[in-house]
Write a structure and sequence with these properties.
This protein is mainly alpha-helical and 116 residues long. It has one domain. 54% of the residues lie in helices and 9% in strands. It is built from 5 helices and 2 strands; from the N terminus they run αααββαα. It is flat, with a radius of gyration of 14 Å.
Length: 116
């Protein structure tokens, strides 16, 4: 069984996250929201430093024109693997999840603004 958190599943999210995050509405486990992120098409490369500790991975989100479905799926896998790296530290995992969501929402807003 994989350690990867399926952040597209509300039940998996609830099993792996702090319920308070859902209650405050800071995290969006809605598959429709994730679908929007997966459909983002933008020429940019974002580096999201996760920690000064060398053993902790850096979340690398790349959005480019004509991104394929497999590439879009890879972005979601990277986010899941990144959050899984904090499995033993729920508070840090939630903090990183909220920051990641904020980054993705910013990217989406910028992309939508550029389309209008």
């Amino acid at each position: 069984m994989s350690n990867i958190i399926d952040i597209t599943s509300l039940e998996a999210f609830k099993a792996n996250q702090n319920e308070a995050i859902i209650d405050r509405g800071l995290f969006h486990p809605n598959p429709k929201v994730l679908k929007i992120w997966k459909e983002m098409v933008k020429d940019t490369l974002k580096k999201f430093p996760s920690s000064p500790e060398p053993s902790v991975p850096t979340l690398d989100l790349s959005f480019s024109k004509n991104v394929s479905s497999s590439e879009q799926d890879e972005i979601i896998k990277k986010v899941s693997a990144f959050l899984t790296s904090y499995k033993g530290d729920v508070a840090r995992q939630n903090f990183e999840a909220v920051k990641t969501i904020a980054l993705l929402q910013k990217e989406l807003a910028e992309y939508q603004a550029s389309e209008t």
